[in-house]
Automatic annotation (TrEMBL):
The keyword tRNA processing does not apply. This is Uncharacterized protein. The chain crosses the membrane at residues 42-63, 75-94, 109-126, 138-159, 179-198, 205-224, 244-261, 298-322, 342-362, 374-392. Keywords: Membrane, Transmembrane, Transmembrane helix. The keyword Metal-binding does not apply. It comes from the Bacteria.
Amino acid sequence: MASRKSLLSPDPAVRAANLLLLCVVLAENVFGLIDANAINVAGVINIDLVWQILLLVMSVVLYHRSRRVSGTKTSAVQGVLFAALIVMCIFAAWRCNALTGQPFVRGILPQRGFMVCVLAAILLRRPFKAGLVDGKRLFQGLIILGCIASALYLLQALAGSSVTFVHAASNERYGGIRLYIKGGLSTVSGIVGLWLCLRDGDWRYIIPTVLALAVTLFVSKGRLELVTYLVTLLVLFVFSRGSASIKVLVVCFGFLVLILFSQTEMFGRLADSFVNGQVGGSEDTSSIRDAGRNYYDFVLQSTGSTFVGVGYPSTLYLPAISMAGFDYGYYLVDNGVSGFRYVYGDLGVTIVVACLAFAVWFSWKNRNGHIRAVILAFLMFLALPAVNLAWWWNTSDWQVLTAIFVSLAWIRSGTWCSRLGGVARA
């Protein structure tokens, strides 16, 4: 007989959680083991299409099933705000067509993942509230898959260029290789791991937290990501429920790790980069970002598009990417909310801020206090670096994870017990 928690579990709620986890893995190019660039036909047919179709179909099916469960209605205002984002994406495609002649479809295709995940966030809230997705299975899967991702990324960084099995762009930083990986699973497993360690007092859950920190330090090597991750863990530590003795031990363990790391050569290089703004002797990366933001402001004002933006430029249409400053090295992905504002204008930014505020509000209102802290920590990790990095907008694994965590804010009260290892469903 199949195990209740196996991939093909007879429990439909467990199967739904497994499929959501599969979407995240596919959105992360199966931990980077698949070369996404080798599967791309004119920006239309690629591996992203697989998880987008899967996520969209299962969201529609689960929503249809949730309508049969009484007492599962969700906020219409939040739904309207999310729907407004989809409308903004369609308008952005038309806007870029009007300004540069870019074909309308070319403007839609780069936004496809974001639009699918916003739609998924609208649809999945009700299934979570109806108990059609097993939250316990979801968090356990994030922990396991995150550890696998972290281990693979660390092994690739250790192997260097001699052996390549994780496909990601790379350069040198702090005297070693830096990989531009999709680190959503790794980071989220670290956040979830600390939450469960504090809540359940099980030290095994600290493993993904340490692995995710190692990935940030030795693989992705992003200064802003590192600070954001540590601040998020600190806030989670302060506001999570848990025994005082466990928290004291976590603090002692953290200080021990810091002392050991401070003795390494990399610590000195990292400290220097924060002090003088240099990264391994290269130019300060903030300079080109500042130049990009000034350029975006100039284009928005000169075209009279400050309120609605100038639309999404396709990399396959030269006039649009030229107007976006690609020729000068200004990329939307490197400029966070400034790049978002360039595409959607002040109106788009206002809608996103409202969506975040509503997500925080419903997370805080959730009577299921056991998961409130981890949802708020996830949202904090997205919001803090938004000046430079908007993972929720332009990185596929973070798009799926954002849809999932927004929906988790509606998870049915009573679905969780006091410990993750207990009975998951009421």
